Amino acid sequence: MGPPGLSAPEETQDDAYWRTAGDRIQTLLDASATGGPVARERAERLAGEITDLYGAALHRIIRLTGTTHSALTEEFAADDLIASLLLVHGLHPHDMTRRIEDALDKVRPYLGSHGGDVTLLGVTDTPGGAEVRLQFAGSCKTCPSSAVTLELAVEDAIHAAAPEVTAIEVVPAESAPTTGVIPAQSLLSRVHRDSHHAAHAQAVWHPVPELADLGDGEVGGFRVSDATVLACRVRDDVFAYRDRCGNCGGSLAGAALHRRMASPDPVLRCPRCHAHFDVVRAGACIDGTDSATIHLEPMPVLVRDGVLSIAAGVS
């Protein structure tokens, strides 16, 4: 039975509906408290019994498929919705380190668009939960202000895959680049130390399922929270930027992607000043050496709860 009010829903819409079931269950439990503590206790026991019942069934499914159909078990683990339920019941077939590595693989294309990468240095179990140590490589490439969005993307992916993680430490690289670009690892360490809580309190992820409708080479405008966002698809990846040209400051409405003969990746041309920006590499302007500090303002795009989402409100 699918979500009410949706006719032939897309798989992503269906995933988003069921991944938010926990919030609806909690709302119903809270509402039961109006009947007094006895009613609340009975409602919680009912929810617990149902959860345990489905948990027992999932345990049998994993036990049966794991011995005879290992490929099917891997498909279960790769499905975000099923994997989340397996995690709840402690039945996920992969250990925490494997889940974290897989999560980092999913965000590496986004980090690569900012000229960076991330390495998992280790996972440590502590009485308060698991602690993860990461090291970033590369640099933010002409847009150091996007360091907070890189951190958000990595932390969001890790916590979704391994909810038992309670702390993430960014370890600075031993040697910094000699260029004038600020190293990403330094920025992220500073974010962690000085403004971690403030930045995360201000960043809100907004589902934008319409992003999935963009075809390769298409550009579209979207309203996300109080911001106008320009998004485009390049092959399998979606990139989003705030609707403001880094050169002239005007709107990018009407902008289109143009192919370059020397590169397989397209560039976005401002319809007003005709400046060209590399949308795959953090929106850097490519119009000569004098444009090294000119860039678009990137906004992180990730699949959250099965739906393409954009983080807005990052300062």
UniProtKB/TrEMBL annotation:
The UniProt record lists the keyword Iron-sulfur: yes
Pfam families assigned to the protein according to its UniProt record, in alphabetical order: NifU
GO BP annotation list: iron-sulfur cluster assembly
Entries under InterPro entries matching the protein: FSCA_dom_sf, NIF_FeS_clus_asmbl_NifU_C, Rieske_2Fe-2S, Rieske_2Fe-2S_sf
Keyword terms: 2Fe-2S, Iron, Iron-sulfur, Metal-binding
Keyword Metal-binding set for record: yes
Alphabetized GO MF terms: 2 iron, 2 sulfur cluster binding; iron ion binding; monooxygenase activity; oxidoreductase activity, acting on paired donors, with incorporation or reduction of molecular oxygen
Primary role: May be involved in the formation or repair of [Fe-S] clusters present in iron-sulfur proteins.
Protein name: Fe-S cluster biogenesis protein NfuA/nitrite reductase/ring-hydroxylating ferredoxin subunit
Species this chain originates from: Mycolicibacterium fluoranthenivorans
